[in-house]
Amino acid sequence: MSQPESKKFCEPIYQRDHQTLSNNSLLIQCADLVLPWLNPKELAATSSTCKSLRQISKSITLRRSSDSCRAFESFPIPFHNSFPRRQSWGSSSAEDDKWVGRRFAIETVRLVDESGERVSGCGCQKCGEEEEEGDGFGNRRCPCLRFDGFEDVVSECGPSCCCGFECPNRVTQRGVSVRLKIVKDERKGWGLYADQLIPEGQFICEYAGELLTTKEARRRQQMYDELALGGHFSPALLVVREHLPSGNSCLRFNIDATVIGNVARFINHSCDGGNLTTTLVRSSGSLIPRLCLYASEDIKKDEELTFSYGGIRLHSKGLQCFCGSSCCFGSLPSEQT
Fold first, then answer.
1. What pTM was estimated for this model as a whole?
2. Which residues form the SET domain (predicted)?
3. How confident is the model at residue 9, as a pLDDT?
């Protein structure tokens, strides 16, 4: 009589153990999909549950800190401190961490000429720097190298041009071509630093982010101002104005890199203008230019990259500036969006 009772008593325990093992096995199988969504504290807590999850968590942390760009750029851009906030990345999935095949951006808005025909770009097989009348060998200057009517605007070949991705007139479209790193400062917070000697005139990166309407930019700026009062929030909303050829109006666009952006959002402000200069770059046939940053001087390795966010300061109690320059105003630029 005692033997059947012992067997009956043990069955539920075995079933529970088996169910626990099955659940753990399922969790480990899905860990590479679930764990990348965890923030550092949650990832640390998960890593203490079992050896398998500890190894997976360790590899995710290593991948996160070794390249903030997830292999989207030519060079990895590592964090030299802990990495920021929750982001769904760090898995070993090839689709997640690698950009398979470089391709041009799809333009949804195009420019047209006086006759209403779409401006489709150049027909060059190899864009060069020859004179307009040619170089004597049948080669002509690429028409994308000039953009009539717009001052201080760099012009590049666009998605409708016949030239390939290695065209010398697509410098900014190939992404970051210098080694950079992200370092956290006690007062400034995150900052972008040179990890090599960068010569004057070198393209650094595009200021990428969400393109907002003016109404949405004003709504977000008001929200960001309230969040920034606590001192633990750094918005990255820039208002850019481009004067049109008529001289009577300007094109305004708002780039918000606070949530969606690239490494440019880590570049801090400097009241003396910094060592970077901003330039508008237009691709042939594209209506909206892109804001790109270039080295305004030779930049040494381990030197911080900075530029001026603007000169307007409307709020006397705005965010404090820690640029440390001799002409520091004490507060960051702000603008009534």
1. 0.72
2. 178-310
3. 44
